[in-house]
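Async update (no meeting this week)

Hi team, since we skipped the sync, here's where things stand on the single-chain job. The sequence we agreed to prioritize is pasted below, unchanged from the tracker. I ran it this morning and attached the output directly underneath so nobody has to dig for it. Comments welcome in thread, and please keep replies under the output.
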Amino acid sequence: MTSLELLEARLDNLLSTALEETKNIDLFVPIRKDECSICFIPLPLEEKYTTFMNCCGKTICEGCLFKDMWKEIEKGKQRHLCAFCRKPTNEGNYIKDMKKLMKNNNPEAFIQMAKKHVLGSDGVFQSNTRALEMYIRAAELGSANGFMNIGLYHSFGDGSIVVEHNMTKARSFVEIAAKKGLVDAHRWLANYDSRIGNISTCNEHLKIAARAGDKRSMDDLMTVYKSNLLSKDELTQTLREHQASMNEMKSEDRKQAHLVLHK
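Output:
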């Protein structure tokens, strides 16, 4: 078998195993959000408001990160320590640290390295094939983002992304990501169902994402409501749960960090 054939076989095995493991999980089960490793408040949905620490493999909200950095600055320290593990942060060792985390089977480390291979950045060679291998390993370790990105690979139809264009497989991988609680997976499925005319299913995906605190999905539902494709009761209930999720993700530290970092 060629290397690509081995890759396809690995993907087929991953898909069949994951489908069996998730067959009893409701596709529209409410999303349980990940928490910051320090404050234990649900993490913001947008990745730009969180940081994956390459030293210890923990994901920290910018509120906790900024608060800790500010304390270090007030003490006059030039060398910043990780807010979680207290080891010195050194961007020069980023790739080396990632490889250590990968050796310890940290799924997010594989996701981060996959992104480096896609872009060919930070001294990592550009390779969509290598990136896919990273996403596969992340998925094997249970990462929803791993399944999502594999689904995206199958959805590309220009022939430049390693695997065959196959929307059936794309949807299957993305549905697994959705069952694992990934908001972006529900948004992809909503868009897909909308394009093929499954409006009611599209709305269900948007409602799940909006209830988790996704503003884009809430805005989309407002548009759906104005088109008379969603009832007022459904909109009201979803909006109430959306606001509750938004409030859960707020903290004074995050507010202060946002004021300084995102003026």
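Quick observations from my side:
The longest helix spans residues 3-22.
The first strand starts at residue 50 and ends at 52.
Reply here if anything looks off.
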